[in-house]
Amino acid sequence: MTYYVEPLNCIIKRDILCRLNRSHLTKMNTQDLALRIADLQGFEGYQFECQPIPGEVEVLQVTVEGFEEIPAYVSVTDTQILCITYLFTEEEIQADSRMEMLEEMLELNIPIPLSSFAKIGDRYVIFGALAVESNIEDICHEIITLSENAVEAISALEEFLK
């Protein structure tokens, strides 16, 4: 039986290449995300502005040019990258049409791509989630899509708002 022994320099080069190829799999935090977005200098014709929000949970406020009134809030956990945009508060809903609005939100969950509705406290949100292994282009695409979907959702639900 013959054994092939790989030269040491080949093993080292292969190890470095493997690490480089896996570098996108390392856990990203919001500071890394802000730097990566800034390095892109725009994506799909949109410019981004990032603002870290200090707190117990790291959050990055990302404003997409053209959607300044509805920023996305991005957080990174061990299992996902969560992007949230606030739509409106409970107080802004016409009380007599609340149930009809909730029904409409359930029906809109399917046709609005890459986003879903939720409620955080008294605020209604639209959100999308990505795998932590997602590349920066996918993350930027999600943020743009979420911003577009937020505008579409507010427009579709405006008849239920005061």
Mean pLDDT comes to 86
End-to-end CA span? 81 Å
* Most strands sheet: 6 strands, antiparallel
Cα gyration radius (Å): 21 Å
- How many extended strands? 6
Helix content: 25-40%
CATH architecture: 2-Layer Sandwich
Strand content: 15-25%
- Can you tell me the CATH class? Alpha Beta
CATH-derived topology: Yope Regulator, Chain: A
Number of distinct helices: 4
Number of domains: 1
Structural class: alpha+beta
The SSE string, one letter per element, is: HHEEEEHEEH
Walk me through the structure.
The protein is α+β, with helices and mostly antiparallel strands and 162 residues long. It has a single domain, classed as Yope Regulator, Chain: A (2-Layer Sandwich), CATH 3.30.1460. 36% of the residues lie in helices and 24% in strands. The chain has four helices and six strands, in the order ααββββαββα. It has a six-stranded antiparallel β-sheet. The longest helix has 22 residues, at 136-157. It starts with 7 loop residues before the first helix and ends in a 5-residue tail after the last helix. 20% of the residues are buried. Mean pLDDT is 86; it is low at 1-25.
Briefly, what is this?
The protein has 162 residues and is an alpha+beta fold. It has helices at 8-22, 30-40, 98-108, 136-157, and strands at 48-53, 59-64, 72-76, 81-89, 116-120, 123-130. The longest helix is centred in the C-terminal third of the chain and has 22 residues, at 136-157.
